[in-house]
Design a protein that fits this description.
single chain; alpha+beta; four-stranded mixed β-sheet; seven-stranded antiparallel β-sheet; 60% helix; 8 helices; 396 residues; 13% strand
Length: 396
């Protein structure tokens, strides 16, 4: 419609141009011009009336078209919205499907990873268990080898100890034979005694199989005129210290022989000896209990001339030597820990205690609690006496 109006407008302009251009012609043709003018007016009137009707029609048509267009647009929008909703739903469904698939894949991955880790853990446990079994087998093998080594070492040690004991026993028997030879020599010579205090012997057996020291004290006390029983002295006056086990290896511990009798002299085994001080203490305690003015004294370290001087003074002497007055033998396997300071004491196997009561130029006269009154060459006696530490006790 607008295009039509534009055309009419163009026509009108064209007509005006024509009028202007043909003014001369108009002057000569006035009637005709008037007619033209009237026609033009009529045309313009019709144009304006038609334009109003056309505009109204156009506006009405436009409103209808707008409404239709709006309806179309609404429907289109609804369609687009529905399509968008459908697309969104499809997109959400796709995203959800992708999420579910991703979760499934992740779950499968996690499950596989867990399965792998579990398999790795079980494999590690299997390997560890196998290593532990191998370690235990190796430890068992080592323990068995060590046990066999220990058993072999113990057997070797026991065999060595047995051999050493046998050697010492053989030597002690040889010394006993030598002692018998010396006794036979003494009896054959029967030399004149320089001093013979005439001590009466007391045998330590029965009752005190390992009690030569306390029996020697009983011999000395009885010689001094006191009635002393060896068993009473052993039970009530002698300080004793029993053996016991210490440490994880159950090492044997016991008393120091300088202060106690190691074990109990009444026992056949696990009973050893004591040195001078326990005998001095037992003797003085007995003397005190019986109101005696006598005093027992430790004269350890006295040499041969000192011993002879004591005999010359009329004092029998308790002395420490060896069985048969031979060489002293120690035995390391029988050692024990001294209770006071942790030092080890390696015991003598053939220590013996006797009472020296006389002498001549060649022999010492001895009251032996195991053999009775016997004689040993002075050199033989002094060798054994010195090897035990020149230990001696007198009473005066």
């Amino acid at each position: 419609m607008k295009l039509v109006l534009q055309k009419l407008e163009d026509v009108f302009i064209y007509i005006l141009k024509c009028i202007i251009l043909t003014w001369r012609y108009i002057k000569s043709h006035i009637t005709r011009i008037i007619c033209y003018i009237a026609a033009i007016c009529f045309i313009f009137a019709g144009y304006f009336v038609g334009e109003s009707h056309l505009e109204a029609y156009f506006e009405e048509e436009t409103a209808v078209q707008v409404l239709a267009k709006a309806e179309v647009e609404v429907k289109l929008q609804e369609a687009l919205t529905a399509k968008e909703d459908k697309r969104v739903v499809q997109e959400l469904a796709r995203i959800e499907a992708e999420r579910i698939e991703a979760e499934r894949i992740e779950a499968e991955r996690v499950a596989k990873e867990l399965a792998r880790k579990e398999a790795a853990r079980k494999e590690a446990e299997r390997i560890a268990a196998e290593k532990e079994k191998q370690r235990k087998r190796e430890e068992a093998a080592k323990a068995e080898a060590l046990r066999k080594e220990v058993i072999a070492a113990e057997k070797a040690k026991a065999a060595a100890e047995k051999a050493e004991r046998a050697r010492i026993s053989w030597m002690i028997r040889a010394q006993a034979n030598a002692a018998l030879a010396e006794q036979a020599e003494y009896e054959a010579l029967m030399p004149e005694a320089i001093v013979n205090l005439g001590v009466s012997n007391i045998m330590q057996k029965p009752g005190l199989p390992n009690g030569c020291e306390i029996t020697a004290l009983a011999i000395l006390l009885n010689h001094k005129g006191l009635s002393a029983d060896k068993n009473v002295l052993a039970d009530h006056y002698l300080r004793k210290f029993p053996f016991y086990a210490i440490g994880k290896n159950d090492q044997r511990a016991g008393g120091d022989p300088d202060y106690y009798y190691a074990g109990n002299p009444r026992n056949n085994s696990n009973a050893y000896y004591c040195f001078a001080q326990p005998i001095v203490s037992a003797g003085n305690a007995f003397l005190k209990d019986h109101g005696s003015s006598l005093v027992a004294s430790d004269i350890t370290g006295t040499d041969e001339q000192g011993l002879i001087a004591q005999l010359d003074a009329g004092n029998p002497i308790i002395t420490w030597g060896t069985l048969s007055m031979g060489d002293a033998f120690t035995f390391a396997p029988s050692a024990w820990i001294i209770n006071d300071n942790g030092d080890k004491h390696v015991p003598f196997l053939n220590l013996h205690c006797v009472v020296l009561y006389g002498y001549d130029d060649t022999f010492f006269y001895i009251a032996d609690p195991l053999r009775g009154n016997v004689a040993f060459k002075r050199s033989t006696f002094m060798n054994a006496y010195r090897q035990i530490g020149s230990r001696a006790v007198i009473m005066q």
